[in-house]
Structure formats: C-alpha cells, structure tokens
C-alpha cells in the first residue's frame, strides 16, 4: 500500500491522538451470513495487539475492512482523525499490510525490492536504504541480499515480505501469520522486530491462530469465533479463570484412538497425536499416573504436565486447537 512521507509512522507525530478504534463493525454477505458481528475494539500506538481465532472466524474480513478493501455493512473504523470507512484511500495510506499469501517478488533482488517498496511508500532515499540494511542484518538474511526472489525459500520470502511492509511502516501495521514457513532461529529475530515496531510507536495487529507464539509477544489480544469477539484482554487476564488448573499434554502413539478419559478431566481437545486435557491441581498425581499408564500400555509415547496457557483458554472458548498443536 502506498503512503506519503507525512503519513509514515516514522514521520513526526506531534501531539495528535493516533489510536485505532473499531465500533460495532458488522459485515453481512448475501443478507444473512454475518462474517463480522458487532466487533468493537481499540488499539493504541505502541501496542502489539493479537487477533486470534480459528480459520473462518472472521479475522481476514475484519482486516480487509480496516485497510479499505471492504466496506462494513454497519459500524465505524477510525484511525486518529481519519474515518477509514468514509475515506478508504486514507486507510490504504495509513496502514501497512503483510497478507498471509506469498508476496510476488520473483523478478526482484531482495535488497532492491525492499528499497523500492520504501520509496513507493514515500520514504527518503537515504533513510530507506539505511533501514533496509538494518532489517537485512536484524533478520539475518544478508546472504540473500542480491538473490532473485524466485530462488528464495518460502521462509526467506516471508522475511523479505515483512521487510517490505516495515521498511517505511504506516501508523498501523497488520501482520497476517508473519512467521509462516520461517525457521526457528529467524522466527525469534522476527518477533524481536515486531516488538520493535511497537516501541517505535506503530499500532501492530498480529493476526494468527498460533496461540502459543502470540502469548509471548502481544500486549493485549482479542479472540474471534463465528464472526464475534468473544474475549479480550491481556494474556494474564484471560488466563485468570483457569488458575488452579493444570495442562496435561499426552503424545499418543501413531494410530492410537483417544483413550477413555477419567472423570476428573475438566475438558480436552485433540490435534493429530496430541491430546490436551485440563485438570485440577489437586489431581496432578492422578494425571501423572494415568498418563504413565497410557505409556505402559503402548497407547502414548510421552506426556507433559504444566501450568495452563493461553492455548487452554483458546480451546475452552472456541473448541479449537491452535496451529502450533495442530502441527
């Protein structure tokens, strides 16, 4: 998305309030299908805000309305003094967006496509060049700086796409599954850059269904299911209802069916070979004995018992397991 120098997050902010606000956002298709249903949320400059939910929950529909590609059926979307519904051009200027789909960079070299994007967005040539070098070094992709995009792996292309979006970022930066295909080492480097965007004053939307990663990185988050916002808060506040409970994760043997669950298991979900159960702290010993028995019977291969996580809240609220456990 093209932005002028005056709308870049790196330009002077003055004393203006650049908070993002969505109020009662509803998107209806065909007169009956509510892809978004009365979604209200706000994000402050400098905040990393997670937008979590299973596939089909309505996250992408909301994002398309924020960046001016769709018009809400009802509701308001504002960024600072701008009405993004009435002025979708302002949305395209003020927001930077990394889509989940691969960025088409096959015909460009890495350094040149990052610099080109920064210049299109209105950045000063010298500043864009310096920022490009910083991103290439910070994400450890220097060995590909002069490589054509068609020769890059999916993970490196993802990092280049992130660099294109953030070399001259808007007031709002929206990242849709930014760590897809990225190796573990560079994934950690990427999360550091996402946090840095917040410290630089951008409002960052992190759109994901990888709950375990989001828990470590966001300041606040919203969970969306069936088009509705069903929970919002800090990771700690959302886990408050699960205090006093433990997470028992059992890796089942290949081909094993879900075993009969003891009565003291509060809730459970299965993804692939992973069986995740919530139990009371008082039932920890029983939980260990039960899991060990499954291993002894050849039903399971290993288990882990620990504190509840945001993943457990996500399972309880949506009935889904996030991408990290699905993998």
Structure description:
The chain has about 325 residues and is α/β, with parallel strands linked by helices. It has 2 domains: about 5-235, Rossmann fold (3-Layer(aba) Sandwich), CATH 3.40.50; about 245-305. About 30% of the residues lie in helices and about 30% in strands. It has 11 helices and 14 strands. The strands form 3 sheets. It has a 6-stranded mixed sheet, sandwiched between helices. The chain has a 4-stranded antiparallel sheet with strand order 2-1-4-5, with helices on one face. A 4-stranded antiparallel sheet has the order 12-13-11-14, with helices on both faces. Helix 3 crosses helix 4 (about 125-140). It starts with 19 loop residues before the first strand and ends with a helix. The model is unreliable at about 1-15 (pLDDT under 50).
Key features?
single chain; 327 residues; alpha/beta; Rossmann fold; 2 domains; 6-stranded mixed β-sheet; 4-stranded antiparallel β-sheet; 14 strands; disordered N terminus
Briefly note the structural class of the backbone: alpha/beta
Residues in helices, as a percent range: 25-40%
Fraction of residues in β-strands:
25-35%
Tally of extended strands? 14
Mean pLDDT across the residues is 90
H/E element string? EEEHEEHEHHHEHEHEEHEEEHEHH
Q: What characterizes the major β-sheet? A: 6 strands, mixed
Superfamily (CATH H level) name of the largest domain: P-loop containing nucleotide triphosphate hydrolases
Radius of gyration: 22 Å
**Could you say what the CATH architecture of the largest domain is?**
3-Layer(aba) Sandwich
If strands are numbered along the chain, what order do they take across the biggest sheet? 6-7-8-3-9-10
């Amino acid at each position: 998305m093209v932005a002028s120098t005056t709308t870049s997050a790196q330009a002077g902010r003055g004393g203006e309030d650049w908070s993002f606000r969505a109020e009662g956002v509803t998107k209806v298709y065909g007169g009956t299908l509510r892809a978004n249903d009365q979604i209200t949320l706000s994000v402050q400059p400098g905040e990393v805000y997670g937008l979590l939910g299973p596939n089909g929950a309505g996250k992408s529909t909301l994002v398309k309305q924020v960046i001016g590609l769709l018009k809400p059926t009802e509701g308001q979307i504002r960024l600072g003094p701008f009405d993004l519904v009435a002025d979708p051009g302002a949305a395209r200027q003020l927001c930077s967006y990394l889509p989940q789909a691969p960025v088409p960079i096959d015909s460009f070299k890495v350094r040149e496509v990052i610099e080109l994007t920064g210049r299109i967005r209105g950045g000063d040539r010298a500043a864009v060049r310096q920022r490009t070098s910083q991103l290439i070094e910070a994400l450890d992709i220097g060995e590909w700086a002069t490589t054509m995009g068609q020769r890059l792996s999916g993970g490196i292309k993802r990092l280049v796409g992130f660099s294109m979006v953030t070399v001259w970022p808007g007031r709002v930066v929206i990242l849709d599954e930014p760590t897809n295909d990225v190796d573990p080492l560079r994934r950690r480097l990427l999360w550091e850059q996402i946090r840095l965007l917040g410290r630089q004053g951008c409002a960052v939307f992190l759109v994901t269904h990888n709950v375990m990663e989001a828990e470590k990185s966001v300041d606040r988050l919203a969970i969306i299911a069936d088009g509705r916002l069903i929970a919002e808060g800090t990771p700690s506040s959302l886990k408050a209802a699960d205090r006093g409970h433990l997470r028992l994760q059992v890796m089942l043997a290949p081909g094993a069916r879900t075993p009969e669950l003891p009565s003291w298991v509060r809730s459970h979900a299965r993804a692939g070979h992973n069986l995740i159960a919530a139990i009371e702290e008082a039932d920890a010993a029983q939980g260990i004995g039960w899991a060990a028995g499954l291993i002894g019977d050849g039903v399971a291969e290993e288990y882990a018992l620990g504190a509840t996580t945001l993943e457990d809240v996500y399972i309880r609220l949506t009935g889904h397991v996030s991408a990290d456990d699905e993998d």
